Amino acid sequence: MLKHKFTLLLLLSVMLLQGCATAIVTGAATGASVATDRRTTGTVIDDQGIEFKAAHAIFKNKEIYDQSHINITSYNGLVLMTGETPTESLKQQAESIVKNLPKVRRVFNEVIIAAPSALPSRSSDTWITSKIKTKLTLEKGVNPLNIKVVTEHGIVYLMGIVSHAEADKAILVITQSAGVQRVVKLFEYTD
Question: Distances in Å between the alpha carbon of 23 and those of 14, 26, 65?
Answer without folding.
Answer: 14, 5, 32
